[in-house]
Amino acid sequence: MLTEEEIKAIDEELSHYPDKQAVCVEALKIVQRQRGWVSDESLDDIAAYLEMTVDELDSVATFYPLIFRKPVGKHVILMCDSVSCWITGYEQVRQSISESLGVNFGETTADGRFTLLPIPCLGACDHAPAMMVDNELYGDLDAKHVKQILAEY
Predict the structure, then answer these.
(1) Of the candidates 6, 3, 71, 7, which has an alpha carbon nearest to the alpha carbon of residue 39?
(2) DSSP string covering 96-122
(3) What are phi and psi of 27, to 5 degrees?
(4) Which residues contact 74 (CB under 8 A, 6 or more apart)?
(5) Number of structural domains in the chain
(6) Domain coverage including residue 98
(7) What are phi and psi of 30, to 5 degrees?
(8) Taking a C-beta distance cutoff of 8 angstroms, is the pair 46, 2 a contact?
(9) Are 52 and 79 contained in the same domain?
């Protein structure tokens, strides 16, 4: 069930659009900010509130890589896997993250602190390879730099 706070935030977004379905991405983000991810039950509630089918909303949710459809760790690491990152050391950086945390893409550390996910582009090609931890962008990465960054979290 959507909370009063979630409904209020969704209604605020609705005031800017002529139809409810136009708010679906924002509604997903609102629920995710509150709960950390969008469960099947949350998806059902959002779809009902926006007068959409669950399948319609799920197709939007699964299209966007920043809508999490399963639980994630306290810190989400988004590793850019664009061409620029690939040719400037992506594999070494990915390997360093995986070895440091003991996880591969799509996995969460046993302590629930980190989830490692690929993302098609972070828009930091001039500082490739790049990753984002939560909302903090890091570029010009190498294995040593990655270990220092992870230690901060």
Answers:
(1) 71
(2) HHHHHHT--TTEE-TTSSEEEEEES--
(3) -65, -40
(4) 112, 113, 114
(5) 2
(6) 75-152
(7) -60, -50
(8) yes
(9) no
Tell me the three state secondary structure of residue 4.
Answer: helix
Residue 99 lies in a domain: yes
The position carrying tokens 């230690």 is 151
> What is the pTM assigned to this prediction?
0.86
Q: Are residues 108 and 138 in the same domain?
A: yes
Please say whether the beta carbons of 75 and 153 come within 8 A: yes
Q: Give the pair of three-digit tokens for residue 39.
A: 């469960």
Query: Which of 36, 63, 90 is the last residue in one of the domains?
Result: 63
* Residue 70 resides in a domain: no
Instruction: Tell me the backbone φ, ψ of residue 57, rounded to 5 degrees.
Output: -70, -40
In tens digits, what is the pLDDT along the chain, a chain of 153 residues? 999 999 999 999 999 999 999 999 999 999 999 999 999 999 999 999 999 999 999 999 999 989 999 999 999 999 999 999 999 999 999 999 999 999 999 999 999 999 999 999 999 999 999 999 999 999 999 999 999 999 999
Q: Comparing C-alpha atoms, which of 76, 88, 104, 92 is closest to residue 144? A: 92
Residues 147 and 88 in one domain: yes
